[in-house]
# Entry
Amino acid sequence: MTLKTALANVVKYYTALLLCFAAFSSSVSAKPLLIASDIWCPYVCENQTGYVTELTQRAFAEMDQPVHFLAVPFNRALKEVQQGNIDAILAVTPTHVAQYGLLTDEIIIGYASKDFFTAKGLPWKFNQLEDLDSVQVGIIRSYDYGEQLNNKIAYSNRFYFASGNQPLSMNIQRLIKGRFQVILGNKVVIQNTAEKLNLADQIRYAGSFGKPLPLYVGFNSNNTQVAKMFASGLQKLKHTGEFQQILDKYNIEETEATPFL
# Structure
């Protein structure tokens, strides 16, 4: 064997090693998934907390898939996931799933009730849709309130929209200032947010409408395998008991959060 041949063989050997190392490195350091939502605590809270955020992060960790969460306005997140600029969005309803062509693998991660609150001292109470004709109502842009309320909102000038990363905080503060008389949202989320704003004693629950809407993690339509990975990861969390530990941390009943898991 000539020196030239020997050197060529050495080069081939180390080239093969480098290629193997590169393949191994790419397999163990998968590109993080981009997952977005606005702040909607206790589902999605600040600093990458909230029970849906933590369940999602841990489910993918069980599958060796890193994730990165982004706090962005909800309507923007819907458009970004539809266009494939991000991989998933947290806490979407069936209407969002259908309208934006999202994948969910039919995994329900919670329910969104449709509840009304007023400033403390206002005697108004919700009993039927016609009751909304006498008040001005603060809501959140691009949120799904169910078919009947969505239609009411579409054909009325009594609803005022908030947007941004923390639109509910904005609506509660506007309610206290008298910008409108009523806010519409999820009871648990409204109470949680009001407590953090030290305004819980200044608002009151005024009734609910209809059945709660199921919530999903919605994936871009091209992410079929990622959606299945999420479902498999959740099942692993169930088997280890970590799933229930996360729910307990946020005082969430399992039957309320994920009845079909």
Q: What stands out?
A: Residues 3-8, 13-29 have pLDDT under 50 and may be disordered. The first helix runs from residue 3 to 28.
